[in-house]
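Intended use. Records like the one below are meant for learning the mapping from a protein sequence to its folded structure. Do not use them to infer anything beyond what is encoded.
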Amino acid sequence: MLKEFKDFAMKGNLVDIAVGFVMGAAFKQVITSFTGGIVSPLIGLLFNADFKDLKMILKEGVVDETGKTVGEVALLYGEFLTYVIDFIIVAFIMFLVVKGINKMKRKEEPTVETPKGPSQEELLSEIRDLLKK
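Structure written out for the chain above:
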């Protein structure tokens, strides 16, 4: 059973998936930083506010003695839009990566050599001649 598990864990596809998962997690942090630090402030200029803090207040809250707002009900659409932008950027980059890999794979495929010997027409002619006899 241990040998079967080792064979399963060391298959090329599984190792590739693990490496891709780790790189994807690190890449997501880069994209989140890019969106939060560069894209959101630029879009926030349009709304004259921090993009992540954009929200639609459905019910006003009350400020308590510590200065915190209690009981506020709001739709946090700015944060949602930030995550949507993150997703779109990651999906586009992954599309470009997969497209590049597929392009490289097509170049690596060896050309199929034509088999040497009689052509299909010659073989059919021989069969025809043998059937005539």
